[in-house]
UniProtKB/TrEMBL annotation, chain A:
UniProt GO molecular function: iron-sulfur cluster binding; metal ion binding
Keyword Metal-binding appears in the UniProt entry: yes
4Fe-4S ferredoxin-type domain mapped to chain residues: 196-217, 250-279
Name recorded for this polypeptide: 4Fe-4S dicluster domain-containing protein
Record key words, sorted: Iron, Iron-sulfur, Metal-binding
Keyword Cell division appears in the UniProt entry: no
SUPFAM superfamilies membership: alpha-helical ferredoxin
Automatic annotation (TrEMBL), chain B:
KW Protease (keyword) present: no
Database matches in InterPro entries: 4Fe4S_Fe-S-bd, 4Fe4S_Fe_S_CS
Keywords: Iron, Iron-sulfur, Metal-binding
Taxonomic superkingdom: Bacteria
PANTHER family the UniProt entry points to: ANAEROBIC SULFITE REDUCTASE SUBUNIT A
Protein name: 4Fe-4S dicluster domain-containing protein
Region forming the signal peptide: none
Any one GO molecular-function label of the UniProt entry: iron-sulfur cluster binding
Lineage, broadest ranks: Bacteria, Pseudomonadati, Thermodesulfobacteriota, Desulfovibrionia, Desulfovibrionales
Domain 4Fe-4S ferredoxin-type: 230-261, 309-338
Organism: Halodesulfovibrio aestuarii
Length: 318, 352
C-alpha cells in the first residue's frame, strides 16, 4: 500500500485518545495476515495493508462495546458492518474512529488452494493488481487477479471505506466485474431438487464449529446463540445433515436484512462450505422487497426495525 | 524393519482387497476440501494434500451412540415406567489409509487418556483395537508443519501399523506393528530392493526441509509461570474468535459431551465432540462460568497441550505438530508462537 506511512501517522496521532486500533499484521507466512490490536506506539509499526488482509476488523467490535474508544482500519466492505451496527444502535458513533482507504481487492485462500494445492506449499506470491504470480516448487504461474480474488470483490461497488474519520491515499477506482454474483446466478438455474441435493451434500460436511457464526460482525448473540443454548435445547448435539442445515438456516434468517455480505462467514469456514449463496440470496430479496442495502447509509433504518404503512416496493392490495 | 514395495497401480488393488472386510477410510476430494471418507466406487484417494479433517474420527467419531433407550409404561401401574437399555459397542473393523505421520501420532495421545491402567473407555478401546493405520510419510512440508518440534517427524511411525514412503513409481512399505506386517504379506507387495535406500533419502530430505527444531521442553513450567498474567493471555487471544475450529480439526483434541437425544419415548445417549474454546464448555448450572472470556479458554487449550498433559503423561506433548489449528484458524492464531511467547516472557521475568 502506497500510503501506509501516512496511515500509520494518522493512527499515531489518534492513538492517545483511543483504547485500541484494530488493523492487520503479518501472519505465520507470506499468505496470511492476522488481526493487529494497536495499544502502544510500537504496535503501529506492525501494521500491514495488503491483499491478504482478509479478516474484517469490525468482527471484534462486539467484545469492545461499552464505552471503549476504538479505532478501526477498514476496507470498504468491512465498513458496511460498522454502519449497520450503528443503524441498529449497537454501537455509538462517538466511540469510533475509522481509518479508511481505497481498496483494490483481496485474494481468496480457497481459490488459491484449489488452483495451487495447499497454501503452505506456495513459496512466493506477487500481485501487481492485474495479475498474480505464484511459485510452487519448480512451477511459476501467472493468473489474472479476478480468478483468485474474493467473490465479493468481483461485485464490489464500495471499494472505498464508507463514512470514515480519516481517509488515506487515493480513492480506489475499482469497478465491479459483474452486477450479480456468478455462483448465485448459476445456482438459481438449478431445480429445487438439485438445490436440495446440493445443500444435503454440503451440510453433510459441516462440523458445527461455528466459525461462520463467530466470524460474523453482525452475529451479536454468539455465546448465547440458540444453536447451543442448553435450556431450552433447540438443536440436537448430533452433527448430521438435518441439524447442520437447521443451524445454517437459523443463521441466515437471523441475519436477513442485517447481513452486509462481507463474506466472513464463508471465509472462516474450515470446510469451505459456500454458505454465501444463502446470504446473497436473502440480501437480494431484501433489496427487492424493501429497497434496502444493509450497512450503506447510517441514516437508514433497517426494514425489520421499522414499520411503514406503505412500502415503496410492495404494492398494497386495498 | 523389512522394507517392501508397492506400485501406484497396485495401491488401488490393495485397498479394494482390504475393503472386503474393513471400512477403508481414504482421503478424498470432498467438494473441494480433503476429508477421510470410506472407500467407494469413484472415490480416488488424494495423496498429495494433507486432509483438512483429522484421522481421529475413525476412532473417535464426532457422533457416537453409546446406548439406545426406550421408556415403557407399566400397564399395571401407569405411574411408573421402566427403561430398557441397549448397549451399542462398535463392531466394524476399519483401516485408515493415507494419514500423515502427525495425524497417526495423535492416536498415541488418545491412548494414554482413554485406555490406561485406571480407565478403559470401551467405545474408544474397541474402535482402536479394530482400526489399522496405514500412514504416508511426507515428501514435502508446509509452512504450518512442526511435527519435528513436538517429538515427531515426517516419517514418524508412532500410532501407525504400516508406514509408506513415496518413491519413483510407488511406495515402499514398512511394517510398524505385527498386524501391519500381516497386511504386507499380500501378493501386491514386492521386495523393496534398491527402493528402500531411495525411501531413506526421501525421509532424510523431508526432515531437512523442516529445519532446526525449536525446543519446547521447558514449556510446562514457563506456561505455568505466566498462568496468572492476564495481560499476556488477553494479548495472545485478541484475534481469536472463540469458534473451536482448531479443536475439531486437531488430531489430539479429545473432549466430548454426552447428551440424551430423545424422540418421544425412545432415544439415544450420544457422545459428541466438545471444545474448550466454547463458552458453554465450562458454563455451570448456576450460570457461573469460570472460563468466561476467550483469553481464559485459549489459555486452557495451549496449557492443556503443552503443560498439563506433559506433566501427567511422562513429558509427552499433546500436540502432533500437524498445524491444522493454525492453517484453518479464521484469524491465523498460531499456537507455536503463543508457546514461544510464553517461554520468552518467562525468560524475561527471570532476568529481572
Ligand atoms: S469487496 Fe471491495 S472493499 Fe471489500 S475487499 Fe473486495 S474490493 Fe475491497
Ligand atoms: S464454519 Fe463451516 S463447518 Fe463450521 S459451523 Fe459454519 S458451516 Fe459448519
Ligand atoms: S452473514 Fe456472513 S456475509 Fe453476512 S454479515 Fe455475517 S459474516 Fe458477513
Ligand atoms: S507436520 Fe507436516 S511434515 Fe510433519 S508429518 Fe505432518 S504433514 Fe508431514
Ligand atoms: S484459535 Fe482460531 S480456530 Fe481456534 S477458536 Fe480461536 S479463532 Fe477459532
Amino acid at each position: 500500500m502506497q500510503a501506509l506511512a501516512e496511515l500509520k501517522e494518522q493512527i499515531r496521532q489518534a492513538l492517545p485518545d483511543l483504547d485500541v486500533v484494530i488493523g492487520w499484521q503479518q501472519g505465520f507466512d507470506a499468505l496470511h495476515t492476522r488481526p493487529l490490536f494497536i495499544r502502544s506506539e510500537e504496535d503501529i509499526d506492525k501494521l500491514v495493508v495488503n491483499e491478504f488482509c482478509v479478516v474484517n476488523p469490525a468482527s471484534y467490535l462486539r467484545e469492545l462495546r461499552g464505552g471503549k474508544k476504538v479505532g478501526l482500519v477498514l476496507k470498504g466492505c468491512d465498513s458496511r458492518s460498522v454502519i449497520e451496527l450503528l443503524q441498529e444502535d449497537l454501537l455509538k458513533e462517538e466511540d469510533l474512529t475509522i481509518f479508511g482507504f481505497g481498496c483494490n481487492g483481496i485474494l481468496n485462500h480457497t481459490k488459491l488452494q484449489a488452483r495451487f494445492g495447499e497454501l503452505g506449499f506456495i513459496q512466493s506470491i506477487e500481485n501487481d493488481g492485474a495479475n498474480v504470480t505464484v511459485v510452487v516448487g519448480d512451477n511459476k504461474e501467472t493468473v489474472p487477479f479476478t480468478e483468485l480474488c474474493a467473490d465479493k470483490c468481483l461485485t464490489c461497488v464500495y471499494p472505498n471505506t464508507l463514512q470514515c474519520s480519516h481517509f488515506v491515499g487515493e480513492e480506489s477506482t475499482k469497478k465491479p466485474e459483474s452486477e450479480k454474483n456468478k455462483a448465485l446466478e448459476e445456482f438459481e438455474k438449478l431445480s429445487l431438487e438439485e438445490r436440495f441435493a446440493f445443500w444435503q451434500d454440503q451440510m453433510r460436511r459441516c462440523i458445527r464449529c461455528y466459525a461462520c457464526r463467530n466470524a460474523c460482525p453482525m452475529c451479536v448473540c454468539k455465546d448465547h446463540c440458540i444453536a447451543n443454548s442448553r435450556e431450552p435445547k433447540w438443536l440436537s448435539e448430533e452433527v448430521d445433515v438435518q441439524n447442520n442445515f437447521m443451524f445454517q438456516l437459523i443463521h441466515v434468517m437471523h441475519l436477513t436484512g442485517r447481513c452486509v455480505e462481507c463474506g466472513e462467514c464463508e471465509r472462516a469456514c474450515p470446510m469451505d462450505i459456500p454458505i454465501m449463496l444463502l446470504r446473497r440470496k436473502m440480501a437480494g430479496v431484501i433489496r427487492d422487497v424493501f429497497a434496502y442495502n444493509a450497512g450503506t447509509n447510517a441514516e437508514d433504518t433497517p426494514p425489520l426495525m421499522c414499520f411503514k404503512v406503505e412500502e415503496p416496493t410492495i404494492e398494497e392490495r386495498h | 524393519m523389512a522394507c517392501k514395495f508397492i506400485s501406484n497401480e497396485d495401491i488401488t488393488l490393495w485397498l479394494e482387497a482390504l475393503a472386503k472386510d474393513h471400512v477403508v477410510f481414504v482421503p478424498v476430494d470432498d467438494c473441494g476440501s480433503v476429508t477421510f471418507r470410506p472407500l467407494a466406487e469413484g472415490r480416488k484417494p488424494v495423496l498429495d494434500r494433507v486432509p483438512v479433517r483429522s484421522p481421529k474420527e475413525a476412532v473417535f467419531p464426532q457422533n457416537e451412540t453409546l446406548l439406545l433407550y426406550k421408556y415403557e409404561k407399566d400397564l399395571e401401574d401407569p405411574e411408573h415406567s421402566t427403561v430398557r437399555i441397549k448397549e451399542t459397542l462398535p463392531k466394524e473393523r476399519a483401516v485408515v489409509f493415507g494419514t500423515r505421520p502427525c495425524g497417526a501420532r495423535g492416536m498415541t495421545v488418545f491412548d494414554r487418556v482413554f485406555d490406561n491402567e485406571r480407565i478403559r473407555d470401551p467405545y474408544y478401546a474397541t474402535r482402536r483395537e479394530n482400526t489399522l493405520f496405514i500412514t504416508l510419510a511426507c515428501n514435502k512440508v508446509e509452512s504450518t508443519c512442526f511435527c519435528h518440534e513436538v517429538g515427531s517427524g515426517p516419517a514418524d511411525t508412532a500410532g501407525s501399523d504400516v508406514l509408506l514412503t513415496p518413491v519413483q513409481g510407488g511406495y515402499t512399505a514398512e511394517a510398524v506393528t505385527e498386524r501391519g506386517g500381516q497386511m504386507l504379506e499380500a501378493s501386491v507387495f514386492a521386495d523393496g530392493g534398491n527402493k528402500c535406500a531411495e525411501a531413506e533419502e526421501v525421509k532424510k530430505a523431508t526432515r531437512e526441509m523442516l529445519g532446526e527444531a525449536h525446543d519446547y521442553s521447558d514449556a510446562p513450567e514457563k506456561l505455568l509461570a505466566v498462568f496468572d498474567d492476564d495481560e499476556f493471555w488477553e494479548e495472545q487471544a485478541a484475534g481469536c474468535i472463540s469458534c473451536g475450529a482448531c479443536t475439531y480439526l486437531c488430531p489430539t483434541c479429545y473432549c466430548f459431551n454426552i447428551t440424551d437425544e430423545a424422540t418421544g419415548t425412545t432415544g439415544k445417549r450420544l457422545r459428541t465432540w466438545d471444545t474448550c474454546m466454547s463458552f458453554q464448555y465450562t458454563l455451570e448450572g448456576s450460570g457461573h462460568n469460570p472460563r468466561s472470556t476467550k483469553a481464559k479458554r485459549l489459555k486452557n487449550r495451549v496449557n492443556h497441550k503443552f503443560s498439563y498433559y506433559p506433566d501427567t503423561y511422562e513429558k509427552n506433548i499433546a500436540c502432533c505438530g500437524c498445524g491444522r489449528c493454525i492453517k484453518s484458524c479464521p484469524a491465523s492464531v498460531d499456537i507455536r508462537a503463543i508457546v514461544k511467547a510464553a517461554q520468552a516472557r518467562g525468560a524475561k521475568k527471570e532476568s529481572k
